[in-house]
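Cont'd.
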Amino acid sequence: MGIAERKEREKDLQQKMRRKQILDAAKRVFHNKGFSATTVEDICQEAELSPAALYLYFKNKDDLYASLNLQLLEYMSEKFEGLYREKGLKAEEKIEALKDLLYDLFSFDPLIVINLFHLQASDGLTNLSTERTTQLNELAAKCLRTLGKIFEDGIAEGRFIDRHPIALADIIWIIFSGAVLWEKSKQMINPRKDYLKQTLDLAIDIFGRGIKAA
Amino acid sequence: MGIAERKEREKDLQQKMRRKQILDAAKRVFHNKGFSATTVEDICQEAELSPAALYLYFKNKDDLYASLNLQLLEYMSEKFEGLYREKGLKAEEKIEALKDLLYDLFSFDPLIVINLFHLQASDGLTNLSTERTTQLNELAAKCLRTLGKIFEDGIAEGRFIDRHPIALADIIWIIFSGAVLWEKSKQMINPRKDYLKQTLDLAIDIFGRGIKAA
Amino acid sequence: MGIAERKEREKDLQQKMRRKQILDAAKRVFHNKGFSATTVEDICQEAELSPAALYLYFKNKDDLYASLNLQLLEYMSEKFEGLYREKGLKAEEKIEALKDLLYDLFSFDPLIVINLFHLQASDGLTNLSTERTTQLNELAAKCLRTLGKIFEDGIAEGRFIDRHPIALADIIWIIFSGAVLWEKSKQMINPRKDYLKQTLDLAIDIFGRGIKAA
Amino acid sequence: MGIAERKEREKDLQQKMRRKQILDAAKRVFHNKGFSATTVEDICQEAELSPAALYLYFKNKDDLYASLNLQLLEYMSEKFEGLYREKGLKAEEKIEALKDLLYDLFSFDPLIVINLFHLQASDGLTNLSTERTTQLNELAAKCLRTLGKIFEDGIAEGRFIDRHPIALADIIWIIFSGAVLWEKSKQMINPRKDYLKQTLDLAIDIFGRGIKAA
DNA sequence: CATGAATGAGAGTTCATTCAT
DNA sequence: TATGAATGAACTCTCATTCAT
């Protein structure tokens, strides 16, 4: 029984590694060619895997794509949690810290952030199971709630103007996603130095000043 | 001679109407199904036209799509110009006016704004003539420059903090595009009342407070 | 009645001119783009005519194409007739004269000779009326018969070896068509000086020596 | 290792057979319907294969077509080489042998000879990779050079009149291609016994007499 | 578990041809 | 007579997905 169990665990591990290997390959290819231009074949070649094998690990292309985004959302959720739980920082300092956190998020996976927005703009992904959709939505909601709690604290402490915390969280998200998208789009026209960090810093700076209680 | 001229004008008019008819149909279908899921056939059915006829008015699917976006950018450019030239308003009041202007932009064409961002995230549109691409980019740049000039004035008058005006324009744009995208994405999950106006108002409000000179 | 007749004649004349105008345009376009790559639209633009109008003068694209070839065959037939009737030349001299005549044929319409062979290789032309087909075949047969008669004379006079005259005519035709096709194909690979005249001269020279009675 | 190797070989073999199967089917269909009238679908039905599968073996329709012609050229090249190397024959006898060789060429693949000429007259084949085009041209050039060397020998031995060997090779080619094309075209009008052998024999006979040194 | 080969279904696009005027 | 606009019918080619092994 112990043996069976161990074997089971080993199998699980191997499966997870394969999944990760595919996800990583997919991430790279999506980055280079964009979502719709990427074929399953492309991903398979990058992952050194047969198309048929890919379908052992993911239900379909959309499912693979969604899994990619789940990865990011999980990472993001943790980071936000971490920031929220940080005891040593005042609410304002947490906003300040958001600058780096968000940029870190982008650095963690510049490609997938784009993908996430693609998911939002959601063109397609008709073959996504409701289960996966729910997962995605719940994680996203959780992220926002966590951010919201940071603002809630700030408001309670009288440091921030009194607006609905979730609305403020929305705006942070809007700034982040808008900035990533916009900078990427500018780079497509004219690839050059990466202004994202600066833009993000400035935007959040202004946001921080804007929500400071009078 | 007068007759020939009149006929000419009538023909031109008819052509423009056909183009508009197609653009309108396309707008609706792209909205419902997203860009890549939309087939030329779909658009033609909506426009009550044969596929071949569509190709008399647009070079290809990408071109049609880009034309849709040009429409919006032109409208936007005019609106921004108008606001900039408005003599009776102080710089701060112009920012205030932006709230309505941006929402108006969205109302003018809620679907196409989405499309515009799809264009940004873009993924595809490989069949776009460089001419069209240039048109798009130049119009977008013009919009930003105009916005930038509003901030320039405000800074010169000592009403706004001294940051690069174009960077500020970028942030306005980021807020707008991020908000539209985000609200749309929320609506996809849970269609209900439209919070865009509120979100946009709040975001710009905060932005306005944030750039006020100390 | 005289008036009606005159009007009739004028109408006829005008129609013929229009036909010629279209045929000339078609000739040029087919030359530049090849048969299958040429669209009816192309021809119409070259002829400064609407597509619909073209169909008033020709039943369809194939018919237009066949008419082009009829033109050549008629010209060719006359030339062959002329050579045959030439009293002052011995049979051998007529073969010698064929060199120039054939090259002249090519010069008269370098493009259409190609077209003629395309017609032979006949890929398509499924929409050709039997009437037109018959016309084409009869004219071609007539050309060969005329050529044949030249050989017949030569054989009767004991100047040529005794082979079936039509077979000899076939071979002349084969040499001519083969040469035009081959030189054209060489020019496609490597466009440069035109060797057709030389090749044709040499080939017919050898042919002439080859049929000389021992 | 031996096993892997054997499997590799078997796979290779199977792939080659599939290619051949498609080429054969294509040959038949092109023969019946001509190049442009033949659809990929037609070929696939003949080959009992899905259209998508065809594209696993050939880049596109033009490529398939060109491959068909390469087959013939390769066969032809070998035959010419063989004749050239033949030690026991005098130059004149080699010309005599050409009769059979050329007819054999036609028998090897009566359809594809036509195709080859279509390729020459070519009209189209715009989607052909430069690589394939080069292959075709080089093989064709090689064939001619080989033929040329036969004439060169004959001239050196004083058996043939002194003309440029390649020009003579051209003429042989012209006779062959012209004859095939012409006979085919006659058969289209009036399908009956096959006169190609006779015509070819006579033409080359005359050619042989024509180049004999005085 | 893994694969190479195969495919169904459809996409975008083209073009000879014909109305309505 | 002449036309500009429209179209039906195909065509080539692609791709996510699944067998047979």
